[in-house]
Write the structure tokens for this entry.
Amino acid sequence: MKSLLHYIDTQEEHHRKYNFQDELRALLKKYGIEHDERYMWD
């Protein structure tokens, strides 16, 4: 629960450094999920 509260408290600062696309790429890589970016973005 403490880590969740920390995430919420620092979310605005975090998103100034990483945009949605970078965040998603990192999560996909972290969990070994194969993807093709040609079909991910408009």
Notes: The chain is about 65% helix and 0% strand. Residues 2-37 form one domain. The CA atoms of residues 15 and 23 lie 9 Å apart. Residues 2-17 form the longest helix (16 residues).
